[in-house]
Specification:
CATH superfamily of the largest domain: Histidine kinase-like ATPase, C-terminal domain
Oligomer: single chain
Distance between the termini: 28 Å
CATH architecture of the largest domain: 2-Layer Sandwich
Radius of gyration: 47 Å
Shape: rod-shaped
Order of helices and strands: EEHHEEEEEHHHHEHEEHEEHEE
CATH topology of the largest domain: Heat Shock Protein 90
Number of domains: 3
Length: 431
């Protein structure tokens, strides 16, 4: 059992099934009791009618041997009448039920049932009416029935909940095992997956589907990783050769137009090299092992600020910062250098003339704000790869994606918003 969205209590599959079955059984028993009650009442009435019909047959047989007075003396609840020739049409049996009428003899409400038959005995035509009074179920008897049914309800529900939970848990053990395997599955680790054998068709199909999908994911990931590594390795040599030749050409006598063209080519080549290194770093982060080492980021950030201060000043941007002296966080030093260096250089690159940068560091968060044009990206979209603003086409669009990747790896949260003509990035540290 766990907690879901908005604090709602979440039940396991076996608990859900047990609850549903308990409700179904409860409703079935409740409706069954109602049907049983009226069925018993109807069956009692039909049984009484059958007995009265049999009694009328016995009386008709006795009429050939005894007088009416003798028979009525023996059977006081039977009325016998000799019919006239005008009543010869009376041949069909008549059944009457007086539902819950007051009976003076029984002093209670009763169902007075009577059966009238019209037999011919010898040359005479008779009307034989026999009757019986069925007492209504009183409150005490009805409460007794209710209590009996209630105890049966309780016994069945408890039995269903106990054994239902055991049975469903046993049946769904392969499913729970599969869920655990799925939770620990990580395509980067290429684990050996273990699923439980089951004779349940649907669960066997689910196991097969998971194994097939996970193997495909691992194969695709390995192929992509190999392709990225090969591509990076193969690009390094030709790019180094081209850069070397451009540098040699720049040292020769060239016209101003040729020098500008080569310089532009050299800048673009550096940009391609930077993209290549960033992509390789992004890929390598998938295999980065998180350690428990703590890093005091205060001196590191101060050092990065000093490294960028000259460039920030050259751009006419005002820099202010407040750094607490001791802010330890769990982060690899090299990766921390990449994170904060990217954020600070990004705030300078995307600034405006006579703009400003403000940096704050506390034990709870790191915040950097810079003036700048409003971007078309909001919130998480700004951290996607190759997202470049229209006001700075020179950006390669990987820096913020790299920052997001590193922080997510160490379970830190970074948020972005734009307000009062300022871009604001906040990194929240874990307590």
């Amino acid at each position: 059992m766990g907690w879901g969205i908005n604090g709602r209590n979440k039940l396991s599959l076996s608990q859900k099934l047990t609850h549903y079955f308990a409700v179904i059984v409860f409703l079935s028993l409740a409706f069954g009791f109602i049907i049983f009650y009226f069925a018993i009442e109807r069956a009692t009435t039909q049984s009484a009618i059958g007995k009265l019909e049999h009694l009328n047959q016995v009386i008709a047989h006795k009429l050939s041997e005894q007088t009416i007075d003798e028979i009525q003396l023996t059977h006081p609840h039977v009325q016998i009448t000799e019919l006239t020739p005008e009543d010869i049409h009376l041949v069909d049996e008549v059944v009457k039920e007086g539902k819950y009428e007051w009976n003076d003899r029984l002093l209670t409400n009763a169902n007075n049932v009577s059966v009238t038959t019209f037999p011919f005995v010898g040359n005479k035509h008779y009307a034989i009416q026999s009757q019986i009074s069925l007492t209504i179920i009183d409150n005490e008897f009805f409460v007794g029935i209710i209590m009996t049914i209630a105890w049966i309800f309780v016994f069945i529900i408890i039995t269903l909940i106990f054994f239902g939970e055991l049975i469903t848990r046993k049946l769904y053990t392969p499913f729970y095992h599969l869920v655990e395997e799925m939770q620990r599955f990580d395509v980067r680790e290429s684990p050996t997956l273990q699923v439980m054998d089951t004779d349940i068709t649907e669960l066997a199909q689910l196991n097969h589907l998971f194994l097939k999908t996970s193997n495909q994911s691992i194969a695709h990931y390995e192929a992509l990783k190999e392709f990225t590594q090969n591509l990076s390795h193969e690009l390094q040599t030709p790019m180094a050769n081209i850069k070397g030749k451009i540098e040699l050409m720049l040292n020769t006598n060239l016209s101003e137009e040729q020098m500008q063209a080569l310089s532009s080519m050299y800048d673009e080549l550096n940009k391609v090299s930077s993209i290549n290194r960033s992509l390789v770093l992004l890929m390598s982060l998938d295999h980065h092992q998180i350690t428990e080492e703590e890093l005091n980021v205060s001196p590191l950030i101060e050092e990065i600020i000093l490294d960028h201060e000259d460039m920030i000043t050259m751009n006419g941007v005002t820099l202010t910062y407040q750094l607490e002296a001791n802010v330890p966080i769990q982060l690899n030093p090299l990766l921390a250098q990449i994170v904060f260096s990217n954020l600070i250089s990004n705030s300078n690159r995307h600034n405006i003339p006579q703009g400003g940068i403000d940096i704050q560091l506390t034990t709870d968060y790191f915040m950097i704000k810079n003036t700048g044009y409003e971007q078309e990206f909001l919130n998480d979209t700004i951290f996607q790869r190759f997202k470049k603003g229209k006001h700075n086409a020179q950006s390669i669009g990987i820096g913020l994606a790299l920052v997001k990747k590193i922080l997510t790896l160490y379970r830190y949260e970074i948020a972005y918003h734009y307000e009062n003509n300022e871009h604001v990035f906040i990194i929240k540290f874990k307590n």
